[in-house]
Amino acid sequence: PLKAKPKPLDKLYANYLRAWFGNFGGLGVDLFLNNKRNKYSAYGLNLQHAGFSSGPVDGSNSGSTRTHVDGNARFFSKAAEIGITAGYDRHRVNYFGYAPSLTDVSEDTLRQVWNKINIKAHLQSTEVDNPLQFRAEGAFQNTSSDFDATETLGRLTLKSSYQIDDPLSIYLNGSLMLSQYEVSNQQNRNLLKLQPGLRYQTGDLTIFAGINAAQENDTLPDADQLHIYPNLRAEYQISEQVLAKAFVDGDIEERTLWSLSEENPWIAEGVALAHQNRELAIGDSREAGIGAQAV
To answer: Long-range pairs for 174-177 at CB < 8 Å and ≥24 separation?
Structure first.
C-alpha cells in the first residue's frame, strides 16, 4: 500500500543573540542558548542586560541597569517530566524623587540595588490518558537590597485533578509559603492555602465548585488567621473564539518583598509586608481566542 511521506519539521533555530542601543544612553544585550529537538530533554541558558546611563530626571541621577541570567533543564519520560531552573537578577535604580532645589546630590546616596536568587524544581505528569494529573513544584528565593533588607523564602505548590468519570472530576490545589523577612527586626511569615473542588462539564458548559481556604500569620494577634471563601466558577464556550465566564470567590493573595520590588523597585526602606485579603468578589468576563482551559 502507498504511504504518505511525513511532512518534514520546520528548521529549528536554538540560539538567539540581540544587541541594542537607545535614548538615555541605553545599551543592552539578549542571549538565548538552547539545545535542539530532543524527545528526552530540553535545556538552555538565558542572559539579558539593559543599562541606561541617564534618565528623565537630573541626568545620571535617574539612570538604571538590570542584569538577569538563568539556566533551565527538563527531562521527559512517558509518565512524567522533571525540571529545574536557577537564576540570578541584579537591578540597580536611583531614588531621584528629591526636591529640584537640591543641587549637591551624590548618586551614592540615591542608589538602590536589588539582588535576587531563584531556584525552582518541578515534577509533572505527562500521560494524558491517566485520570490523575498533577504538577508539584518547590522553590527557593532570596531577595536583598543595599538598605540591608533581606527576605529568604521557600514555597511548595501542588496542582492536581482526578477524572472520576467522563463529565466529573475532582481537583486539589495547594501551596505552602514560609519566609523570613529582616530589616530592622526579624519577621517570620507563613501562608498555607488549600483549594479543593469539583469540576463538571456537559457540552459547552463547565462548572467549578469548591472552596479557597488560607491560614496565615500576618493579621493582628486577635484577628482571624484562618480564612475560608467560596470558589464558584462557570464557563460557557459561546463559539470557538469566545469563552464567557462568571465567578464568585475570595482569596488571600501572597505579598512578598520579591513581588513588591518587582512591581516597584523604588519602594521605601523597611516597607511593611502583609498578604492581601481579597474578600468576596462577584464578576464575569469574556475571553477571545482558542486555548486550553486549566484549573
So the answer is: 177/153, 177/254, 177/256
Q: What is the pLDDT of residue 294?
A: 41
pTM of the full structure: 0.85
Summarize pLDDT for 239-269 with one digit per residue, the tens. Answer: 888 889 999 999 999 999 999 999 999 998 7
Which of the pair, 271 or 177, is modelled with greater confidence? 177
| CA distances to 58, 95, 108, 129, 186 from 257, in Å | 28, 18, 23, 41, 13
> For residues 131 and 164, what is the distance between their CA atoms, to the nearest angstrom?
7
Q: Residues 58-68: pLDDT tens digits?
A: 888 889 999 99
Residues 6+ apart with CB under 8 A from 143: 114, 115, 116, 149, 150, 151, 153, 256, 257, 258, 261
Cα–Cα distance, 240 to 176 (Å, whole number): 37
- Which carries the bigger pLDDT value, residue 120 or residue 275? 120
- Quickly list DSSP for the chain: ---PPPPPPPP----EEEEEEETTTEEEEEEEEE----SSEEEEEEEEEEEES--SSSGGGG-EEEEEEEEEEEEE-SSEEEEEEEEEEEEEEE---S-TT-----GGGTEEEEEEEEEEEEEEE--TTSSEEEEEEEEEEEEEETTS-EEEEEEEEEEEEEE-SSSEEEEEEEEEEEEEEESSSEEEEEEEEEEEEEEEEETTEEEEEEEEEEEES-S-TTS--EEEEEEEEEEEE-SSSEEEEEEEEEEEEP--HHHHHHH-TTPPTT-----EEEEEEEEEEEEES------
202, β-bridge pairs? 205
Q: Residue holding cell 538552555?
A: 44
